[in-house]
Amino acid sequence: MDSLKALDMEHRSGISHEEVEEFANRMDMISKAMDEIKNGTFDPLQCKIPGYKTPEQEEVERKAQLKREDERCKREAERKRKEKQEEHENWWRRAKLRFSIEDTEVIDETNDKMSKSKRWANRILAAYKTRDANDYSLWNRWEPEDPVTLQEKAERENELEKLRNREFETQNPDFCDQFKKDMDERQKSQNEKTRLAEQLKQRGNGFYKKKEYMNAIKNYKDALLASPFNVAILANIAQCYLRLEEYDECIEFCTRTLFLDPKYIKALSRRATAWHHQKKFQKAADDMKKALELDKENVDIIEQHSIIVGDYEDLMTKQELEMTLQRVEMTKDGAHALASEPSSLDELRFYLNMIQKMNEHTVSDKSSYDRVHDAWVAYDLVLPIIKANDHVRTIFRTSGEMDKLCARISTALQFPNEVNDGTRQHTETTILSAMINCATAAVANTPRNQVILFRNEDFRQHLLTYFKVLSATSFDRIIQSSILCFLEQVVELKSWKNEILASNNIISSLLAALCLPVTVNASSDENTAGMTITLAGASICFTLSSEIAGIQTFTRCGCNCLTAIATALEIHCNDDVKCNVLGFLSNLSTNNEFRRTIEQYKDNYQKLVLRLLEISQDNAIKSTISSTHVTLSERALGVLLNFSITKNSLLRTQYLFEFHAVDRIENILSHVTSSNFSALLLVLSRTVSLLCRLQPASKSSEQEFKHVIRRELLLKLYTVFEIAILNVKDETNVLSFELWQLFAQIWCHFGSCIHITNVRALLSEKDAVSRLLQVLALVHTQHVQKRFASEFNACERLIGNLVKVLIAMHSDNVSADLRHKKKLSILVKTLQNLPDGVARKNVAILLAKLCQIDPEVKDIVRDLRGIEMMMSISCSSAVSSR
Fold first, then answer.
1. Cβ-count burial of 417 within 10 angstroms (0-12 exposed, 13-18 middle, 19+ buried)?
2. What domain range includes position 606?
3. What residue spans carry the Basic and acidic residues bias annotation (predicted)?
4. Given 51, 270, 474, 655, which is the most exposed site by the fewest CB atoms within 10 A?
5. How far separated are the first and last CA of the chain, in Å rounded?
């Protein structure tokens, strides 16, 4: 046994002497600390026990660590700031150096071109003033600058430059080869950089779509290293910073983009948005005005312009009104200035006082009615002022009261009325209806307010949700009638229109509103609300159907749409409702798919056609005809014309004859007089057009054809023609398109049956030839061929039909009236002014027949240069037939 090893503690326990010594020292320190604690002399900050820290020491160390971390962050931020500043300065220095040189070269070149001739002219003028006028020595150095001379000079200079270059390349082949090699290498390098920039840009686009904006910015900035002046990349970086709400950076990169391309619309739009978020409204408005000037058809730019420029104008208007009101309180002159404005001082003061008191009572109201406060009845008092006063509407918008109103309406619509007290229900319904009416008054003829309320998503959603199902209760009907009146005011705005069309439930409710019945036993308020719903619903449907998207939406409803329209026209007596429903139907009937769809539902379709014929007749034969009656009749006839546009349509082949359309047309024609002709002009044009639609279909039945061409009907039709001629009091005044259309349709009907002897006899009896020539002369007097294409096309059809009738009557030996030189000159002028077509060919045929009968007529036509035109028409017809 080794006694030394036995005494060696380190060997026996595995614990070193240092550890033992450290442990002993720690115990001594702990003992000392305990003694100090007992004595009350212990200092936590001076405690030096190894491996142990007092809370105070930990706090000191934590603060020191935070200070070091803060200093590190500051150093890092300063480093990034310096890098950003350096990058900013480098980019702008390079951009200004590069693009300012290019701009200077362009400016210098332009100035040189513009000033060189002026400089010589000034020198010559000075010499003329200071020396003898006959001294032309300066002219020897003058160089002409006309286009031909400049082109010749440029060609000579190009040839000389080519010769110099060829000679230099011959004498310095090594230098030129190396130069070309360097050029190729630089071009390859540039192409490689462009490809790399495009790859990085596409990668950044991928991150942007994933909404990883920082990764997108990193890739875009890497792309900038390869292509620093790529405007698309700069604009993309600005968009990422805009998404991250780092508006200063967004503005910086938009400014860079616009420095390179001042017409880059996206950069203007994004910078305007950033300015707007920073409340720098004037700068934002200036950018949006520039963007709108560059692209006036861009829907997004138009909407953004409305928002941003609207906010700026609101700010200016609010400040102006506040200053004016302050002057009013201080000086009498201010009161006079405000009184001269459309809004009066009394109205402004009343509005402000009422709003203030209402808000105070709302805050102090401790009642249990949180859904609708009694104090909000003040909205009913300020409603007339908001309707009539533009300045009040502006203050209502800019002061935040309109947003407050929307929030209150949203809250009231969100929570149903669960009060059992009928009186309280009526009170809340009245107040809420007045609140919605205030919103309606605020948006009436004020697109700015319409945009703002559409941007209020809670208000928009709750308002539309409340109308998705048409309620049967009287209280809900009153609220829904107010909502529909609001939608009627805003539906012209594209955003509101799209929102309504996107909801099938709202479309179904609108169609249900059209055929809402009037209940006999209901209260007057309920019936009034029901009529308001129907009238506003019809107006909204009319507006929605004015665009293709609306027509397609209603066409998908098919049977429901047809049923609603037919029922509405049957049960409602209100002319305004019928006008809007007919306008709605008129728009829908222009769509082929809609016409095909409704023909499948024959019962409702028949009922609708019969009602349309009744409306068109009843409103056209009234003793006193108003503009509303005319509108009803012409819209009903317009729908019938649209329904019968195809030859095989049910309306043309079956229903018009079943429902005695010819008798109704004859009845309308029989009520035309000189006094009501002007008012009924459009109705007559469409009435006769409908008669012409019956011609082809009637030929399948001998009885129907005789009915269409019977003498009584033709006499009334010719009487309308005579009244129309008599109403042309001054031939120099421009005649309307509707009148030309009426003439064309009348003689279209006569032309289709002119082959019948009795028809020609009737026209001979009425001495129609002279009237027809009078109309032809009227065409030349009016110079219709120099006006709108639609008018000229109507006149071309008219001339074709007139000449067709004249040709037929010529065969009955009534051509003596046509042989006078004056009337022949009318035919030759007609031949001269018409373009190649059926009408011109008919005129040539008529002249040829007249020339065959009488040699004198041939001589007159030759003198009028008509023979050459007839031969030209004959040759062109022969060539086309081949």
1. middle
2. 599-699
3. 60-84
4. 51
5. 139
